[in-house]
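Today's session is about reading a structure prediction critically. Students often jump straight to the picture, but the first step is always the sequence itself: look for stretches that repeat, for charged clusters, for runs of hydrophobic residues. Only then move on to the predicted structure, which in these notes is written as discrete structure tokens rather than atom positions. Here is the chain we will use throughout the hour.
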Amino acid sequence: MTAVRMPVSSPSESLILVDDQDREIGFQSKEACHRDGGLLHRAFSVFLFNRQGELLLQQRSALKPLWPLYWSNSCCSHPRQGESVEDAARRRVAEELELRCELSFLYKFKYHASFGELGSEREFCWVFAGFHDGEAVAHPEEIAAFRYVDPDSLTREMAANPDQFTPWLKMEWAEIRQHHLAGILHQPR
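Below is the predicted structure for this chain, in token form.
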């Protein structure tokens, strides 16, 4: 019997608003940050690889208000008030996937993407990578499915079916492939 898992986020949770240099300027609800054109807030994306060098992808839950059932990176979310981005990324990987792992910071960037008229992501996103040994267990409110894919296959899939992937994954994967992937895959595991 599977244990019931507590929700890990809500529309009312407080996100960290930032300026164009990623300096904190206040706080606002998650719902307000994603409404209309969005408010610039701090976020993170995590890319987890297994020992074979395959990337763990997640399909976002059908319950997600923005980009439901789209394929995305292993984990993404927001730090809480008073929480470092690194601690938030490790916390969220444990909450969403029941995995514990060390993460390495890769880079950060600012982007804006609209999901029709339903809302937007306007984020200053910190990107991390790591390896894991355990078996992922998806949080049902956050993740519809997950799978592993080798880097070349992911690149081909994204080129053939770009509308099946979140916009931030497409931006981040292009940067990771060009500037970080070789280093990530050659790290001791």
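Discussion point for the tutorial: The mean pLDDT is 93.
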